[in-house]
Amino acid sequence: MTKKGKLIGIGVGPGDTELLTLKAAKVLETVPVVFSPKSSKEKESIALSIVRPVLEKRKDYKRLMLVEPIFPMIEDKAELEKVWTSASEMIAQYLDSGRDVAFITLGDSSIFSTYSYVQKKLIGRYEIETIPGITSFTACAAARNEALVEQNDILTIVPKIDDRLEDILDYSDSIVLMKASRNTSKLENTIEEKNRPKEIYSVQNCTRENEKIIEGFSNEKPYLTTTIIKFGDD
Ligand SMILES: C[S@@+](CC[C@H](N)C(=O)[O-])C[C@H]1O[C@@H](n2cnc3c(N)ncnc32)[C@H](O)[C@@H]1O
Fold it and tell me: Looking at the chain, which runs of residues are DSSP E strands?
């Protein structure tokens, strides 16, 4: 019987290829199949653009199986479930044929990553290894040459405003607002109006060629925008 392949989830870091871990690069130099989800047919996946220089150096590059399933940015749970199931079954076919599959994902694989849905569907059925990556928000703090949290500080990660925000604001010392392209003025006002001394900055396209650090919330909001709020009460 053919030995089944292994699924390797790889966090590829925030943008700069040099921020790939040695472990990730080593897998990408030899793995026979790379899954690189993207949000639409037209757009290249950011994760793929990060690892491309490593893949293109491979002597067997032409034989590499690169699969780019579409993971649309929708919120309809039933539709998403269909997409995740179909991508997982596609991966399962490669694994059943004995080939290892690398599933690449932006930043770290455990933070708002498409990989986690596939991981949940395939765990227990196949061997899985997950290689963490540098997450965007630690890269953003590094770009600013500042700590994100110190001593007993509490860090909160917020992907989207909802009615829990008001309570969270009082108990967080630093807040990472991910998916900041969806920030609303309501969210921004709620934070601005909080009567605590604070520093706010936004990083666009962190560690990429067009990286920009902006004081406050950013008016332009490209997809790769993260805003960091640091309260300083004492
Ligand atoms: C779907 S989440 C993926 C997060 C990723 N797994 C991580 O560990 O950073 C996408 C969000 O991550 C943030 N992000 C990812 N890469 C970034 C970068 N290079 N610069 C700024 N923000 C980034 C943005 O807030 C973006 O909307």
Answer: 6-11, 33-35, 65-67, 101-105, 127-131, 155-158, 174-177, 198-204, 212-215, 225-231
Q: Which tokens belong to 107?
A: 């930043």
Q: In this structure, what CATH number is given to the domain that contains residue 91?
A: 3.40.1010.10
pTM of the model: 0.94
E strands, 47-190, are 65-67, 101-105, 127-131, 155-158, 174-177
Which residues does ligand 1 sit against, CB inside 6 Å? 14-15, 106-108, 111-113, 135-136, 140, 178-181, 203, 205-208, 223-226
1 assigned to some structural domain: no
166 falls within a domain:
yes
Whether 142 shows a pLDDT value over 80: the answer reads yes
